[in-house]
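Hello forum,

I keep getting stuck at the same step: I have a sequence, I want structure tokens, and every attempt I make locally crashes halfway through. Rather than fight my setup again tonight, could one of you with a working pipeline run this one for me? It's a single chain of 248 residues.
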Amino acid sequence: MATPIKEWSKLEVRAVVLFLFSKGTKPSEIHKQIAETYVEGAMSRSRVYQWCTWFGEGQTSLCDEPKSGRPKTSTNEENTTRVDELIRCDRRMKIREIALKLEIPKSTVHEIVHDTLGYRKVSARWVPKMLTEDHKLQRVEISQRLLQRCEQDNGDEDTTHTDVGTGGDFQANNNLFDNLITGDETWVHLNTPETKRDSMTWKHPSSPVNQKFLRFFAFHKKDLVCCIARPREGHLSLSGPPSGQGSF
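Reply #2:
Ran it on my machine without issues. Output:
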């Protein structure tokens, strides 16, 4: 028995089917001869019958016909441009929404957004206050004055100084920080504000970091501002707005 042919091509096997079919050989016999001549897997029984049907209908080409329908990939220049335009118009748009709007697969949108366009979705960075340049300058000046006072008060227990923040006087001691009061304020919301995940936007790695101030929320008319103050030693002071008012 001859050794089966190990190296073959699809066109070669199809040519054998066409040759045998043109001689009047039955499809079952064609498959038997191919199985004996070539290694297993050269052409299945169903494919032999399929090609015999096509040859019987008059087809002579051994090549596959072009397939109709959607191409294998939708990642092309046109879709890339459309996705980029949508993101630039609304940086909070989700991949699912982009896919529905453009009628392309979510996997394609994901590839375009992350691999082709280089976007990544991040949240805005929370900051307690949006300080102006004047606010920043005032903080620097006050900090410098506090440092100077610490140097002047070192070892001097009998000197009276003007308070940096209020203009009042106090008796200095060995530790200036015993006379300082720290404080802050916070909003008490009566509604559910937007979550950090809801505020995520698309950006490139080189884009500046977004910042989000608490006033970005849509405040309820009854929301409150609470002020908290505490000395180094003593009780915590908590105060709110007068009755009937939403804020100071």
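The first helix runs from residue 10 to 22. If your local run keeps crashing, start a new thread with the error log.
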